[in-house]
Every structure is written in C-alpha cells, then in structure tokens.
Amino acid sequence: MALLTLQGISKRYRQGELEVNALADINLTVEEGEFAALVGPSGSGKTTLLNIIGGLDSPTQGTTQLNGTDITTLKEAQLSDFRLFQLGFVFQSYNLVPVLSALENVELVMVLQGRHKNECHERAEHYLELVGLKDVVHRRPTALSGGQQQRVAVARALAAGPRLVLADEPTANLDSENATALLDIMHTLSHEEKTTFIFSTHDPRVMDRAERIITLQDGKIVSDERHHHEHKV
Amino acid sequence: MENISQASVLSRLPILIFVAWRNIWRNPVRSILTISALASGLVMVILYASLLEGMTRQMVRFATEISTSHIQVHRQAYIDDQDIYATMPWSYLEKIEQDFPGIKITPRLYAAGLASSKNTSTGVLIKAVNPKRETAVTKMLEHVRHGKLDLGIADTTENGFPRYNLVIGAQLAKNMNVEPGDELVLVTQAADGSIGNALYRVAAVLKPLEPNFDRMGVLMSIEAYQQLMYLENGFHELAIKVDDMTQLESIQAAIVEKLNKLNSIQALDKLGGKPVVRNWRQLNPAVADLLELSKAFVFIIGFIIISLASLGMLNTMLMAVYERTHEFGILLAIGMKRRWLLLMVLFESFFLSLVSAIVGSVIGLIINNYFEEHGIDFSQSMPDGYDWAGMIFEPVMKGYLEPVDLGYACLMMMVVTMLASLIPSWQTIRLKPAEVMR
Predict the structure, then answer these.
(1) Which residue of A has its CA nearest to B23?
(2) Predicted pLDDT of residue B390
(3) CATH class of A4-226
(4) In chain A, what is the straight-line distance between the N-terminal and C-terminal CA atoms, in Å?
C-alpha cells in the first residue's frame, strides 16, 4: 500500500493582477521507505508541493492522502496533530529554536507529542548520536555549524517517529563536505529507520543520492525516475 | 503515535513555560529595558500610593488626634446655631465615663468674643478645655510653638480675682502682634446677658493646627471660661477617644443609647434639642470624601503610569513576535498548536511583568522605607507645614504603604501588561507557516 498518494493536485494563487499556477494536476504515489527527491528549477513548485504534502498549505484542487488519511479534509487542530505525529520537517535554514540546546531541540517535538520525559531524553540522545553530534548535545544552535544544525534538524525529525520526513532544500546552505555528510546520514537513517524521505533540491549532489527523482517544471511532473544506490552504513 | 497521548494544553505547560522563560532572555538588553520601564512605573505607583496614604493618614490623624477626636457629642441647637445655652449637664460626663471604660472623654465649651491687645482688636473664638482630660484625648496642647503651656492662674488682680493664662493661635498672635507674656483683654456677652470681660496673660502660642483656630482661636481653662461667661451648669461638646478604632461604630451606637437613657432620667430642656453623637467621618465629611477620593486617585494615576509603561512592553513583544515569525512558522510546522504558541508568547509577557513586579516592588519598598522613616522634608520652605483642602499638614511628608496597596499595584501592572501583550500574542495565532517560512 502506498504511503502517500497525491491525486489531481493543483495550486493557484494570485500575485497582484496575475494568477499563478504553482502546481497543475499533480498525481504522485510514494511507497513506504522511499528516498525521493523533488527536483526542478526555482519556481517549479517544489516547495509548494512539499507544503501541501505537509499540510502547511492547502491545494486549490485535488486530494493528498497519507497512510489512508485525506489531509485536505483535516481541520487546523487535526492538521497540527497530523504534523506532530506523522511528519518530520527539515527546512533550508534556521530550523532550530535558538534558545534551546541541540538536545532540547530534538526533545521538543517529542515533549509536544506527550511522550514521557525520560523517553524523550533517551531518544534525543540516541538520534543525536546517530547523526554524529554526541559531543555537542548541550550546545545551542548559535554554537553549532550550519551542517551540525541541519543534522540536529534531521535528528529532531526522526526522533519523533514520523512516517514521512519532508526536507525542503536541506543542503542549500551547506558546503560540499557538510552536504554530503548530511545526505549520507539521511540516506542511512532512511533505510535503518524505514522512514520515507521526500526532499526538494536543485543541488546535483543531492540528486545523485536520491533513489527516485521526480522532476517538476512549471508546476507539472515532467519525469519520475528511479535509481538504485547502495547506501552506506 | 497510537500509544502517545493526544496533545492537551496542561501537559505541555512545562515545556511552554520553559521555552518562554528562555525566550525573554534571548535579547537581554531589550528585556532589561522593558523590565526597567515597567519596574519604574511600578515604583512610581508604589511611592505615589505610599505618599498619598501617608498624607491621608496624617489627615485622619489631624482630623482625630489634634482636635476633633473620634466621636463628639453636641446638642442639636448647638450644632444648628452655636447656641451657648445648649449645654449638657456635667453629670452626663461622669455617667458616660463610668459606663464606657474603653474610652477617654473631655468636655469643651465655646463662645465668640472680642480680643484686644495693646495695638489692635479682633474677633476670636473662645475654646475652653480641661487640660488634663484634653491631653488624654487629643494632642492639641502638645503643639506649642512659643511659650509654656499653662492654662492655670497667672496672677491675681487688685480686687482679688484670679487672672488666667490663655493660649492662642499662631496667626492670631501674629495679627495682634502678641507674644507669650503679653496681656489680652477678652470681651463677650456672658450667659446671663451681661458683658463679660477680663484681662488675661498669653502663656503660649500654638502651632498651626487647623486654619480656623490658627486665625482666631483662644484657648482657656474651663474655670476661666466659667468665670468669664457665667455658664457653669454644663458643657457644649464632649470629645471622645476610642481605644480600639474598629469598635468606633458600636461605641457610637452604645453612647447614643446611653444618652437616650440619661435623657429619660434627667431630661434636657427642649430648646437645646437632643444630644447628637457623630463620629469623625460625620464631623469631617470632606476628609472622609478625600479618603475615598485618594483611593480612586491612586487607581487612576496608577493605571495611567502603568499603561504608559506597558507601551514599552507592547513594543518589545511586537518586535519579538515580528523578529520570530520564521521561528513561529517552524514551530507550527513541526506540530505546535496555535493555542500553545499563543500561550507561550503570553507566558513571555507574564514573565516580563512578573520580573518587573518583583524588581519594582523591591526597589519601591526600599525607597518607601526611606520615605516612611524620613519623609520628604519641606520644613526649610514651610516650617509650619502646608494648608491643603482646609487642613494643615506637617512640613515632613511621610509615606505609608499598606501591603494590600502593594499587592493591588503589582496586580494592576500585571493585568495591564498582559492585556497589552494580547495584541502581539494574537498575531502569532494568525501566522500562516507556509507564508512566513518563504
């Protein structure tokens, strides 16, 4: 059974006098455990599509089903719960709450989920260790490099136990070394944790790592290719 | 997800409080400035309330301790027309004193007259007291500016009549150019219709206590009064000091009852009317009204000061919310509910106002402590105090802070600042994560 099914998704919005077709009739199915990249030039609709999948934006037309739930019919509070329990997010930058340490940032989502304090702490430490940040768990974001901050965001997204992780240009602000390291971590954890990753990018380094590349242009899917990569453990 | 409890606000309070507390120290300079503004406002309110309460207490003290005392009894005709024949018999004094051990009483007599010194003459108000009793009831006789308080016999005239001492008001002494030791002639219409006149010696000049007495008051002993006025069968006024002010009204009611009983046993003449018992609030309605007004003043002025200070808070929170819209978007995206976010921002405002309340209270109490101990001293420019609303105040303005007033000031500050913070907090609710993260 498909984890994510998008049917006839369109998104139109007004920009001044103009009506912009951000997405047009998107049909997409993503299976559990996939490591998929949404690629395409700027303005092709990658972020809009990710926002719709994440329930941060609503489509003008079409349905988005995650694990059998049509999220386009959910109310605001239900959408919050949906994001809290089913999704993990990694954004391009400024992902973390600056007044919390790396450990507290990872714990935050789990605390909001209502998990027990000890469980939150153990899981946060575990995932920070997995992303290689065992020694900096008490540092605040300002004391971490860009790459480290993104790794904390990945740990935060995964520690909460989501079905799907959405990452919007996660490597856009990283140098090659950090970008590669982050992708390796995401790829490895995707397989180890059996977590589905969908990330948007126009970074060739990221595309190379993706097992599936969905190319968007002018709000439409123009290609959908699957690649096979051996992941590093 | 199935095993995890659905999100309720209560269980998330600790993390919201924790993050809010951290957030207020995110920009320490701005938070400290906001706290300083709010705390300064609170300090001003505390000091204003303290000084006004100090003035009010001084006013009440002057209204009760200096001359009026807590309760007074007069006959109706004396109240209406200052009828000098409207007296109460001396036996009333003894019987009331016997029945009410928890009070101190002193009789007084009054008359109008003409005083003449070497240089000038002026109308005066003659007040006769029993110095020993008066001292137990009021502090009027303690406020001597010049001379020595003595209402006894100064010397004897050539005819063998005693010549009494007088005490007069400061302004009267100045107007008549009289000093302690000088002679003063009083002329009045005695109770028997004759012209009563006598020569007195000024023993002392009193400090300004109440404007009327200061300008035209002449104080003498009851014996001197009786000799001048030929009025021996009673007194005009009974001033009563109550040991326990909380019992004021019940004692007043009991005295009314006692007087009715006395009247039924020893009936008073009808012309003078019934005895009327009034407490200090009824005797000084202007002071009582001012007391009520002062509370309203504290509230209004406090509200204005705190509201102005809260604008700083409003600005801080608006800036904080504006700067953090992206971060709020992230929090909403990762599943934080809007009401949690609203609560978190409200907690930030709450902590700012709480810290301000603590800082303001501590500083306010320290300054207030100084004002209670030393006050603001105007004695250089106003050695005799100042006259306000028909009352004379001491030249040293001292503060007095009721703990409940401090509590109200803090509560008012916190309520006003929380109300001000609703505007920025409400903005967080309307954020659209997809838009703010763009």
Answers:
(1) A99
(2) 61
(3) alpha beta
(4) 27
